[in-house]
Amino acid sequence: MSAAFSPDGKASSPRLSDKTARLWDAESSKQIGEPLSGHSAVTSAAFSPDGKLIVTASSDKTARLWGRREAASRSVEPLSGHRAAVTSAAFRPDGKRIVTASWDRTAWLWDAESGQPIGEPLSRPYGCCKERGVQPRRQAHRHRVFGQNGAAVGRRE
User: Per DSSP, what are the bridge partners of residue 24?
Assistant: First the structure.
């Protein structure tokens, strides 16, 4: 289960297994608006930096962008292109881009305003080492850490 707080700390959005994401008032623990529905199973949810938008990722191979005020009343067309479950979605610190990652081993970059993909997906080919008879070395997982301005500030292993 993943969860996120809105930037103002007033709402949270846990993902649920009932095919929805719901907004909760962080003070009263009461649901805000109707559930965000339209996916098969929600795997991740994130708020935009200004708190006006929410992006949800799903096992149905899509992500969806929602207006926070309208909650379930509107969603742009699904962000489609992955060939497997979308496991996570996040906004860039300036809120203008969204990145999605999937079990298909790709990451897509999207324009947050239009919902259109930007360029080709980033991918890691399957079996790149085995096909050449090379055993892959086991390496620690590495994560890049980004600051509020979107620039890389370090690496975590």
Answer: 12, 31
pLDDT, tens digit, for every residue of 1-33?
567 888 888 888 765 657 777 888 888 988 888
**11-124: CATH architecture:** 7 Propeller (2.130)
What average pLDDT does range 93-99 have in this prediction?
Answer: 94
CA distances from 138 to 98, 101, 135, 141, 142 (A): 30, 22, 9, 9, 12
- Taking the domains of the chain in order of start, what are their residue ranges? 11-124
